[in-house]
Design a protein that fits this description.
mainly alpha; two-stranded antiparallel ribbon; 5 helices; 4 strands; 38% helix
Length: 178
């Protein structure tokens, strides 16, 4: 019994030691993020073109609401971290086709095949293009940024309203915003 307790104690101490080492020497980085709904506050000198494109979408679809996520990440660091793995396992691949060749293909890896043979390593300029949110601020591509989380306060309100209607036989017209 004492040996079992001693063994369990050693395992707990070992796990705690590993956790402390991971916390102290791990590569965890925390970046300050902020979200804003104020399109007017976008610094057009730091983020050129974004404000104009959002205004164009708002003019066409006035019921659309936009949230701006300021990631706190450095653009050059992000691109450098995405443009890695040459020769072994690149983080970003491009399907080899007539549409994606030349400047889309990484000059380091060249025509090297990945996955099922139809994929090539993406070039740095291709990664920059695809990660630049301005390229998706149009009617057909904007939905990749659609927030898919629930608004729990709204769901709670709907449930309470349904309960109220069921209990008291009240008819309340609710109009969807379209």
């Amino acid at each position: 019994m004492k040996n079992k307790l001693r063994f369990i104690s050693l395992i707990i101490v070992f796990v705690m030691l590993i956790n402390v080492l991971l916390i102290c020497f791990g590569q965890n980085k925390v970046h300050a993020q902020s979200i804003s709904t104020d399109i007017n506050s976008i610094d057009t000198s730091r983020y050129p073109g974004i404000q104009d494109r959002i205004y164009q979408l708002k003019a066409k679809y006035p019921n659309w609401n936009f949230k701006i996520l300021y990631t706190g990440l450095n653009w050059n660091d992000v691109i450098a971290n995405e443009y890695t793995g040459h020769g072994s396992s690149p983080k970003n691949l491009v399907q080899k086709s007539d549409n994606y060749q030349g400047e889309w293909i990484c000059p380091i890896c060249g025509d090297r095949h990945y996955d099922n043979g139809s994929w090539r390593c993406a070039s740095e300029s291709a990664i920059k293009y695809m990660m630049d949110s301005r390229t998706a601020l149009n009617v057909s591509d904007i939905f990749q940024f659609l927030e898919l989380s629930y608004d729990f306060s709204y769901i709670y309100f709907k449930r309470r309203l349904k309960f109220f209607i069921a209990k008291y036989n009240v008819i309340v017209p609710i109009f969807s915003s379209s």
